[in-house]
Amino acid sequence: MNEAVFYFITICTCVFALLAVTQRDIFHCALWLAMTLLSVSGIYFYLDAAFLGVVQILVYVGGIITLFVFAIKLTAHIGVKSIRQTSKQWAISAFITLILLSILFRVFAKNPWANIQLEHKSTSVVQIGQSLMANYALPFEFMSVILLAAMVGAIVIGKVNK
Amino acid sequence: MIPLGYFTFLSAFLFCVGIYGALTRRNVIGILISIELILNAANINLVAFNKYLGSPDGMGQVFSLFVIAIAAAASVVGLVLIIAIYRDRKALFTDGFTLMKE
Fold first, then answer.
1. Across A123-140, average pLDDT
2. Residues of chain A above pLDDT 70, percent
3. Which residues, at least 6 apart from A21, have a Cβ–Cβ distance to it below 8 Å?
4. What ipTM, to 2 d.p.?
5. Chain B touched by A110 (CB under 8 Å)
6. Record: contact B82-A100, CB cut-off 8 A
7. Which residues of B touch A90 (CB under 8 A)?
8. Secondary-structure percent of chain A, ordered helix, strand, coil, rounded to 5
């Protein structure tokens, strides 16, 4: 039962991700990306990382996908059918990607940790909050600076110069 | 119980799909979508290793939180850049971005 859930989520993730990069209409791509991110949050729930799954849904599906939809709608005419959406080198790109994928699979299959099955106690939200405030306080503060910089940068770049 | 290797396979597949999309798309928004896929592949690895190898302070989950925040910041700046370029040059495909060549 438990394993069936994992395989179901995995197949969903892979299919949605493939659709997100191959669909013609960019708006459909954004919607498939939303489905992919939802499936990834399902994987987080499967791995007992409930907090991370909720954050994924809130930030990605609630925030980033909305931004993508806005950007697509603000730059309207690109969904036109007659315009080619992929570059001419798609065949060689697919070839290189397949080589990379086979190398990665081979490396991962040979590694000694590939068959680890022992489970540890799942990380609780309390623990995440404590380590954010104690061990990882410095990266946490840097993160707020980065978000502030992104916000200011977005306003400055997006401003219409008269 | 699923062995740890399966999660790394899944994340490698997602990563390669993202790489393929970033290489082939002509549309800049499509490239950003592919980059989001790549970041999610990294996150899956972090969370899976956190679960299977254990970490006293939940390092993997904390760092995937950071990755999500960085991804949000990156996509905000990227989309604003795209809209600014579109307003300026009416170009959305990578072939049209020739500002540095002129």
1. 89
2. 91
3. A29, B17, B18, B20, B21, B24, B25, B30, B33, B34, B37
4. 0.90
5. no
6. no
7. 23-24
8. 80, 0, 20
B5:A115 CB<8 A: yes
Identify all chain B residues contacting A36, using CB atoms and an 8 Å cutoff: 37, 40
Q: What is the mean pLDDT of chain A?
A: 87
Q: Evaluate whether A63 touches B72 at the Cβ level (below 8 Å).
A: yes
Nearest CA in chain B to A34: B33
What residues contact A129, with CB distance under 8 A and at least 6 apart? Answer: none
- The shortest C-alpha distance from A87 to chain B (Å) reads 5
Task: Please report residues of B whose CB lies closer than 8 A to that of A150.
Answer: 72-74, 76-77
Crossing angle (nearest 10°) for helices B28-53 and B4-24? 170
- Give CA–CA dist B73/B51, Å, rounded: 27
Answer whether A75 touches B (CB < 8 Å).
Answer: yes
The answer to whether A75 and B83 are in contact (CB under 8 A) is yes
Domains of chain B: 4-101 (1.10.287.3510)
Residue B29 is encoded by which pair of tokens?
Answer: 């928004």
Select from A43, A97, A150 the Cβ nearest to the Cβ of B19: A97
Reply yes or no on whether the pLDDT at B102 is more than 70. Answer: no
As a whole number of angstroms, the distance between CA B34 and CA B25 comes to 9
Query: Letter for the amino acid at A97?
Result: T
Using CB atoms, pick whichever of B29, B43, B66 lies closest to residue A139. B66
Distances (CA, A) of A40 to A47, A54, A81, A131: 11, 11, 30, 24
